[in-house]
Write a structure and sequence with these properties.
72 residues, single chain, rod-shaped, mainly alpha
């Protein structure tokens, strides 16, 4: 009976180790996914910022042109 109990304990330990490994892999995958999402969001914000800057420069050029042409 003690032998069966020991085998059961070994199986439980193996199962626990396997479950722990799965949890660790899931956590790493979630962290990697979060990092990828963060990177993509950061890149999207940088692109939007550049587009906004470009639009602001174009608007400024348009206003300067209108002021120059209006003064003639």
């Amino acid at each position: 009976m003690a032998g069966l109990s020991a085998v059961g304990t070994l199986l439980d330990e193996d199962e626990d180790a396997e479950e722990k490994r799965r949890r660790m892999e899931a956590q790493i995958a979630a962290e990697n996914f979060g990092a990828a999402i963060g990177f993509a969001a950061g890149a999207a914000m940088a692109v939007k910022e550049k587009l906004d800057e470009h639009a602001a420069r174009e608007e400024q050029k348009k206003q300067q042109h209108e002021q120059t042409m209006g003064g003639m």
